[in-house]
Amino acid sequence: MQYRHRLSIAGVLLIGPLLPMSALALDAPKERPILTISGKISAKNTSDTARFDMKMLEALPQHSLTTSTPWFDKPMKFTGPLLADVLAAVKARGTTVHAFAINDYNISIPITDTAKYPIIMARLINDKAISVREKGPLFVIYPFDSHAELRTSTYYERSIWQLKAMEIK
Amino acid sequence: MKFDPPSLARWQGRQWAAALVALLLVTLTPLLWIQWRQYHMLDDLAVNQVDSLMWQAYQLERESDRLKQSLQDVQASSRPIDPWHLAERYDVFLSRIDLLTNIPRRDLLSSSPEYSNAIGLVNSFVAYADPVFSRPQQLIDNAALRDQVIKRLSAMDLPLSELTRQANRAVARFVDERNRQLRQQGWLVVVLATVQILIMLLFVGLLVRHIRRQQLQYAELHGLSQALENARDQAEAANHGKSVFLANMSHEVRTPFQGLLGMLNLLNDASLDTQQRDYLQTARDSATHLLGVLNDILDVSTMESGTLRLSPAPMHLPGVVQEVDGLMQVAARDKGLTLTMTAAADLPEWVNADTTRLRQIMFNLISNAIKFTETGSVVAHLALDPKGQSGILFTVRDTGVGMTAEAQKQLFTRFYQADDTPRRRMGGTGLGLEISRNLARMMGGDIAVQSSLGSGSVFTATLKLTATTPPPTHATIGADLGSSPRLRILVAEDHPINLKYMNILLQKMGHEATFCENGQEALKLLDQQAFDLVLLDYHMPVLDGLATTQAIRALEGPRSHISIILVTADVVNDTRKRAREVGVNEFVSKPLQVKELQSAIARCSLPDFGARGDEVPEATAPLASVLPFSSYEAPVHLPDAEQPINALIDSESYEEILQLMPPDSLDELLKTVFDGPDGTAHVLAQCIIDGDRAAIGYNAHKLKGTAMLMGFRSMVATSTQIEYLAMQTEDPIDGELGQQVLREAALTRKAISRFSLTAAE
């Protein structure tokens, strides 16, 4: 691990000047970053992470879905980029996303889930930005209503809210 | 529960199906409803995870602690604190409140005082803290403000942990309630399933009952049809039995009737005055008519019992036509009619046909035509059937009374004369036409009629008769015989008395007889000597009449064609038929009569016997052929009821014996019957006492033969009965029968002495 770490630094130092855009493909966040992605990713905007502010997430293609959840007493409309698109933006290569919430909650999400379901990384609920006190700023949501097999604790657990960081493994 | 079985029994498949569907709907619908309820319960549970309620309460308590900790860390930590970190902690704490107050199943908790207390405290804290945390830097800088916030947070510790416990209790109660519901539904499922099973069983029971009932009905119907079949079979058997009985009876009646006719014929030869002759003629006509009626009944009966068989043989067609013409001309002349009988030139000379039956059809049609024609003519014509290849057309045309179309329809119906038509007034049995048509049908043809009232009738019989070659003649044997009328006759007869009698008879007839005891010896003699004729007894030891005939016919050379006459007491038609089949030429009945033997020999048509043969049958010919007789028995003489002696002895037979036999031979013969202990009567009585069935049968047969020859009527009857019992049945033979034989022997002997006296007188 240490060896690899050193090698990657060496890579940045050596190859960086030749291919200035290859490792730092992602623009740097202009506002306060709200999401940090680390691990097996190719597109970064710091030395070893990719950091996103809300504008950057808003720039990705937006999707909406309305579904009922255990956390709201009625179906809500969730809007935001697809988790798959976010992972594509950082050129993630691993098999698992290890997600962390502000309240220290963390869970592993298999990347295969993103191929099977349109998982949304919601930044709006009912078209309004989500504050931290309303389980914001980011809320990973599965399409529970349209897929009965998702209505189990496994997938409810993966629906992480107050999301702040992800590590790709 | 009351079901009406008969109406249920009438249920069809569709009704059963409807009942079954209704039953399934009634029992399955609640089950489906319960399943649907449970599915939704589980689904609801998945969406609205109740246990998260407890979790959220706990998290709220914990985030409160963490917020407090963060504030305390500011004081303790030497490092600079990020004010945004504090704000974020506060927001996380707030998000927990939000969760607890907006969670789907918060209703489980919201009614409790702990909840309102805790939420009230939290809300007042939020109202206080919101402006404070909007400037977090202030909290880092101002220790007093921090302490105040910490203090207020600590005040919430107890109520929040109380809320967590309350949430825990609420969830537990919810789980209890859900379990109770599930148990209830489980019970309902069990009850419904039980009801369903019970109703199913009831239906199965009803179905089984229904099927049983149907099976029972089927069995009843089957039994009924069986009974009907049995009844039909019995009726058919009874009808058949009746026909057989009728055939037997008319046969029985016919036999004495021929005797009566014979007597009347003999009387005709006697010297009578005109009136007596007239009476006699009337009696003869009546008897002849009656015999015709009997013959018809016999024919119909045999046809109905299915025992009538045709016995086709090569037949000389022109000969038959000539014969019929000759006999019918007399009848036509008597009525003053002209009868013209013609035969087409292209007819085959020999055809395969049952002569007797063909003659019967011709007689019937022509005599009918004569009967119903007062003036004019009857024209009978025989020609080839233009339609058939082997058919012969026999047409009888008359100028008689004719018939209406209705009468024609009923013409072939039995006893048609029972109604009051001209036919009835003219007499006739009414069976003749039916018999003729049946015979014609048996010959593969039919009889049709065309007629109109007042202008005569045309009867047409179509018959399928195939042309054939003439039968072999006895020309070669005849050549060997020369011209001598004296015939060399071989006689096979095991009965000594019959042997003796036959010897006398044949000597008187002027023939030369050679005797032997059985068929085997006869075959040996045939091998050694030349004979013109063979007389075979039907019942013989070693080789019987039929077997001997077969053996003779199987010989090589001209010997196999020798004429054979079978001597039999058996009157059954079947025997004669079988005998004909194996090659017997003629029959004579026991006891032998001179005339009968003579005519039988004549019928064998030995070429050189012609001169005598023509004379002999003359006497019996009118009787034998005027009526269309079948091949029946020769007459048996009836006893005279006025003379008691004749109950024991047939006077005519005995007189014949007396004339034929020298007195010493007769005495010797009588001794073999009557004298003890070796006389047949005594031997038979002894055998009956001994109970030796074979010996009883043999001796009874022997006694019967002798008694028949001598005309001992009662002894014939008794010995016949004993023979029948011994040979045909398993019944025990009563010792009384032996005594009866002896009694009758004594009586007969006595009667003979009286008879001799009477005869002498």
Please summarize what this structure is:
The complex is a heterodimer of chains A (169) and B (761). By secondary structure, chain A is α+β, with helices and mostly antiparallel strands. Helices cover 25% and strands 28% of the residues of chain A.
Polypeptide structure, described:
The complex is a heterodimer of chains A (169) and B (761). With 169 residues, chain A is of the alpha+beta class. Chain A has one domain (35-168): Sulfite Oxidase, Chain A, domain 2. Chain A has helices at residues 2-15, 20-23, 54-59, 83-89, 112-116, 153-158; strands spanning 35-39, 50-52, 62-67, 76-81, 96-101, 106-110, 120-122, 124-125, 128-129, 139-141, 163-168. In chain A, a hairpin with a 4-residue loop joins strand 5 (96-101) and strand 6. With 761 residues, chain B is an alpha/beta fold. Among the domains of chain B are: 309-416 and 429-467, Histidine kinase-like ATPase, C-terminal domain (Heat Shock Protein 90, 2-Layer Sandwich); 488-604, Rossmann fold (3-Layer(aba) Sandwich); 645-759, Four Helix Bundle (Hemerythrin (Met), subunit A) (Up-down Bundle), CATH 1.20.120. Helices cover 66% and strands 9% of the residues of chain B. Chain B has a five-stranded mixed beta sheet, with helices on one face. Chain B is rod-shaped and about 185 Å long. Chain B starts with a helix and ends with a helix. Chain A: This is Oxidoreductase molybdopterin-binding domain-containing protein.
